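Students often ask why we bother encoding 3D structure as a string. The short answer is that it lets us treat folding as translation between two languages. Here is a chain of 391 residues written in the first language.
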Amino acid sequence: MATATATQTKGGTTNAGGANSAPAASRPFITGSRNIESHTYDNTVAMTTSTQTLTPYDLVTDGYVSSLWILVEGTVSTNATNNVAYAANGPWNAISTIQFSDVSNRPICGPMSGWELKECIKYGGYSFSDDPALSQGYSAVTGTGATGGSFSFILHLPIEFISRNAMGALTNLSNAAVFRLEMTLNASTNVYTQVPSALPSVRVRVEQQGWMESAGRDPFGNPASPAPPAVDSVQYWERQTYTLNSGAQNFRFTPFEGHVRTMILILTDSSQSRAQGEADWPDPLRIHYDATVPYDRLKKIWAREVEENYGYTAAIETAGGKENGVYPLSWATDFGLKVGAEQAYAYLYVSSGTAIRFDGSIGGSGSHTLTVLWNYVNPAGGNALALTGGK
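And here it is in the second language, the structure alphabet:
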């Protein structure tokens, strides 16, 4: 008996009986595109005892922007006798404020400090090695030597949130509507507890990364999606602060709307000490979601979950370890063992009417500051199905 065969046609596959099958499905966007990098921002400013607004960076329009690398280098060569020491958040807070905004000037990331952005990178789940303090590009020179007060660090501002398929990369094609990065250089007295005798010259450079426009096909001519999946779904990093007294607390976080990937809670006392915030951390702390209490966390177990989810097992306040007063909670864990291995199914949906509450007793005495860094996604078209391929 003869076996039916199939032949290729322009519109798809023709079976022996003459019926056409569906056209071949498009391959993922990244098969028809290529990574692209550019660095056009280079600004050097002498640090003073006052904050200074740096020249804004308007992004190069070259396709789809996925992230920004920010290299900050402070150089001291003539420190004489001062025994230089850094503040608790130094040298990362040499960038006093940073904000990345969309083409309508709405903040996408920030405004927040360089140290807070470092925490977003460390706990946001964007790479294999997340802690910027583990980088060979990080240094902070202390002591009385001539270079005391010199520092270097790299911040990787995230735009794309799922790197394996470029989800979150934003359309960046129009010179008439550009994204903008704005930064402020901090005052020396905020960066150091003992300043160098000669303040540093601070050089800030930015490298922009993204994807070229897709050719609509892969190198072999197979059709490829022309844009990233759920194109122009946007992830935000938003900062909220609350002034709280010691003792029992039960309050609602400021409402917003989005699909939450990560929240980072940071507690300090009235003198902005995170060490005291660690000592005063509620144990347990309950996070309410409307009428339910899905998270009722003991402090030591929460710290252990940070170790398990991120691999940060070094001593507290050291590279590769948890910081004092910092406790992250992530919903970007539904695909693998590490935060950031995600399929976007487990995000916590929050509407303006959702009541997310902080419920616990803060130790110590006097007032405290709770900072919350919220990372959430607004999917294209407002429908979560856009994030998960319609499933």
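Translate back mentally: Confidence is low (pLDDT under 50) at residues 1-17. Keep this in mind for the problem set.
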